[in-house]
Amino acid sequence: MANAQPTPILEVRDLCVEFDTMAGLVQGLRGVSFSVLPGETMALVGESGSGKSVTAQAIMGLIGLPGRISSGDILWKGQSLLTREGQKAAGKLRGKSVSMVFQDPMTSLNPLMTIGAHLVEVLRRHMGLSKDKAFARGVDLLDAVGITEPKRRMGQYPHEFSGGMRQRVMIALAIACEPELLIADEPTTALDVTIQAQVLDLLADLQKSMGLSIVLITHDLGIVAGLCEKVAVMYAGSIVEAGAAETVFAHAEHPYTQGLIRSTPRLDDRRARLVSIDGAPPSLLHPPKGCAFQSRCPVASRQCDEKPARQATPEGGTVTCWTPSVAAWAEPVDRQAEV
Amino acid sequence: MGTFILRRAVQGLLVVLGVTIVVFVATRLIGDPAKVMLPLSASDAQRAAFEAQFGLDKPLGQQFFAFLGDLMRFDFGESIWQRKPALDVVLGKLPKTLELIGAGMFLAIVIGIPLGAVAAIRPDGLFDRLIVGLSLTGLSIPQFWLGLLLIMIFAVGLGWVPTSGTGTLAHLILPALTLAVPAMARIMMLVRSSVINELNQQYVRTAKARGLPFVRVLFQHAMRNALVPVLTLAGWEVISAWAGYTVVVETVFAWPGLGFTAMKAIGQSDLFLLQAIVFVVAVGIVLVNILLDVLFKLIDPRIKDA
């Protein structure tokens, strides 16, 4: 490589995904682009239905009927995964070089298979280990994700594990074959708060010790700040703002990002009232022609009827808005007197 | 596991006892064997002698306690129709019925499960529609009519197999098929919907995300889970064949098994033979249920001793 920039391990270019439903064509993703460098941790943030999980599924090749990737490209170390040869290569990457941790650990394991059988299965398939070696490696992995008495636990079934422990098992399965990229789709949403912190710490430790790249999908901005270097904010199937996590939090350009940050509960300021963004995201069955956030945006104007172009921000990120960096929201009213 | 089976066996014993008592009462209500067995011209003295011979002249209460005592010794009395110990008659017919059920259920399972699973891979695809159509047809055909239709086509028309009777594999084909078709249809439908359901489960998606090939995801992961409800149905099929459908099929094909004999026993008001048949059938049902419980425990680790 001639230029100084290292090749991104994963690059997503203008990805569009459609779902052919009874009601019509739902545009799940409408031109998503981002890239992840080796060892980098990126967050995909957005509310439910914004396309975070669809993005993850598209990368993992898990978009099944009635969905399909209609345009755009996904590149692994510069090679497209959507061409004919690329799909073959993707089959080999999946579960080995790219792995995924899902939202709900309670239903993500086969209830009729022991934890050990799950681990041995992937280790034999991707690492070509013998049964005994795979079992020994499985014990080490359970130990590495902080499960005590790993040897005994290998013989147990998923229903004998708590939610947090199951998520640790899912992480052990995801890192079993030494992946280069881990996609974590709301890995802590189904867990209670103390377990959340433990699981996030575990991910951060693994990221450091294994040099993993992580794409973390979440709607929890608190998690992003603690764990991620980069952040991309999704709204209605596209990325509306992206950049270094610190600068996005400090100088949010897009009114939606500003609204999201404003609506995050603050523990350090007890007087601050919890605020929300009024309205609901647009239907992706008939998405608006112009800016998708227009109907909820306090500073929307007539030009927002046209689709805004993506532009660079002074801090080195990107934003897709006609009027970036305007302080879109009035300061929340102090309602302390009412409490 | 040992105590589990033992507890189920004791429960089963109570069931069998209860059923037998109900049958004792019921058989006394269906008719007077003296009237059926003896010619119309028989004298009152002859009738009285007949009743005395089988103990039917005693009060019902006394008959009942004698019956209970005999039951403890597995003595069901003598078949009025065959003039042989009733239990011997039943046990003599048993292998034929087991052969028929075995062949029928084998066909239903070996054909039903794979076809249902393949249909589930692409719901609403061409193959799936074909399978659903076939299943509905199989479910809708009355069994006795199907039997007669098969006889007309393959035995009378084409002459490939005998019309009725027993002895060779050729004799077995049509009765087994008649017994199998509705069961196969039900199993196919359940396997299909069960596999479709499992393929949509989160654990299947995570298995795919781990890069496992689809064949392994289908057989190792989805099918094992899908088979839990199918096992329930298969058990039900065996029991209803054992305690019902074989009566129809054996009658249509004059298959000399338990069902055919039961029909005859009812026709002849042979109380003692009927009691023995019901006893053996009840024991069979209890045994199948115990076997099912053991299989469930082996397949699904979540089922604890109950």
TrEMBL record, chain B:
Superkingdom field: Bacteria
Cellular location(s): Cell membrane
CDD domains: TM_PBP2
Predominant place of localization: membrane
One annotated GO biological process: transmembrane transport
UniProt entry keywords in alphabetical sequence: Cell membrane, Membrane, Transmembrane, Transmembrane helix, Transport
Name this protein carries in UniProt: ABC transporter permease
Organism for this UniProt entry: Celeribacter ethanolicus
